[in-house]
Amino acid sequence: NDQICEVSDIQDLVHDASAKKGMALSQMLINLRVDKTATVGKLTDVKQELRRANALKISYAAIERQATNN
Description:
Blueprint: H1 10-21, E1 29-35, H2 40-52, E2 57-63
Parallel strand pairs: 1-2
């Protein structure tokens, strides 16, 4: 739902989304839009929380910010 959240909130968020859609988490596709400055460690933490929630289908997209001329 395009939210920035803490890693500790992930399980609750995906369970809520699953309930709203009436789908099992194992059938939902989780789309992660990841900023290029995100660390691999943080992404690993997110993936671990998704596994704990049984959200196993994950799609990744990197977000590149446009350069600004100052």
